[in-house]
Amino acid sequence: MLEAIEKLLILQDRDRKLLRVRDELAHVAPERQELTARALSTQGALDAAKLRGKQIESERKKLELDVEAKQQQIQKYAGQQLLTKKNEEYRALAHEIEMAKEVIVKIEDQAIVFMEQAEAAAQQVAAANVAASAAKKLVDGKLGELATREATLQAELAGLDSNREELASVVDELTRSRYERLLKQKGQNVVVGISHSSCGGCHMKLQRQVVVSCQAEQEIVTCPNCARILYFTRDMDLAVTE
Predict the structure, then answer these.
(1) Which long-range contacts (CB under 8 A, 24 or more apart) does 44-47 make?
(2) C-alpha closest to that of 180 among 7, 6, 3, 12
(3) How distant, in Å, are the alpha carbons of 78, 192, 233 from that of 213?
(4) Does residue 242 surpass a pLDDT of 50?
(5) pTM of the prediction?
(6) 205 DSSP 8-state letter
(7) What is the crossing angle of helices 3-26 and 87-162, to 10°?
(8) Roughly how many angstroms between the first and final C-alpha of the chain, as a whole number?
(9) How large is the average pLDDT for residues 81-100?
(10) Domains and CATH numbers, the chain
């Protein structure tokens, strides 16, 4: 194998590791956002349930005040009945008392509905509280794991990146320039082997002369189809697959 190919394979191995670590790091922020959104969602459900409970309680108390107001009216009308000497006024006050009592009955019926709703809302708050607490505990744990993984990946990236330039500098400038250009275009598979007389990158069948040139190990050989840099070792199978 050409010395230049050996150096390129070492550089490519490093670049593959760098790409892997960078890709994993790129997923950290979205994963963190997803976890945070999950916690916020359950907390939002809890806050909404609490707000609904407060609204129901506020409506129920308002009904209580309405009942008190009507009872005070009844007492007022009853007191006026004791003072009046006219039958018409007495009957009118009696009518007002009956109407106030009817309103009280309706209000109390509404209050029963609100009490039932308040009970259901309390159950929803309890369930939402359990869900929010469980989600927070789970998310906090996963965020901690994520932070640890991120720190590990950053340390690994720093280590891999530390002497990458040194590995690249030992490759001649022309070959390195070709490699760097292909790395941007093709990703991590730049220097590829020959398998069954085909390019290990694009898998197109290679002409016999290309394979022979690769076996001669006298110069850098590239795939005519995808321009990847080719290499061949004795353990590779040249037999063409049917």
Answers:
(1) 45/128, 45/131, 45/132, 46/125, 46/128, 46/129, 46/131, 46/132
(2) 12
(3) 117, 15, 13
(4) no
(5) 0.69
(6) B
(7) 170
(8) 28
(9) 92
(10) 18-164 (1.10.287.1490), 172-231 (no CATH)
